[in-house]
Amino acid sequence: MTAVSAQPEPAGGAADRGLGTDTGTDTGTGPAPHADVAGLSYEEARDGLVAVVARLEAGAGSLEESMALWERGEALAARCQQWLDGARERLAQVRRADAAAPGAAPAGVLDEERQR
Asked: Model-level pTM?
């Protein structure tokens, strides 16, 4: 089996749980909106997304607050998708490496044996 590396957990990210205080407005002088999302683990981004959805469903304050939450939710959802796409690619790499190994069973043979 091929060794694959996992992305390290971001420092201090767990305390935030993906919500942050960023309003989503870009003044051009600070970091990009939702820049902190890029450092979140899958679980942190997912939990943050769940919290954003709950706040939106509860009727977050003003329209501006709702829009900021929506934008944050989009960024969190995209981060979750990055993690899922990365995991899918890592699995595909391992499967390709295993299939290419000498003496490897033809594709589908192991799946058929597991179903019996």
From this structure: 0.61
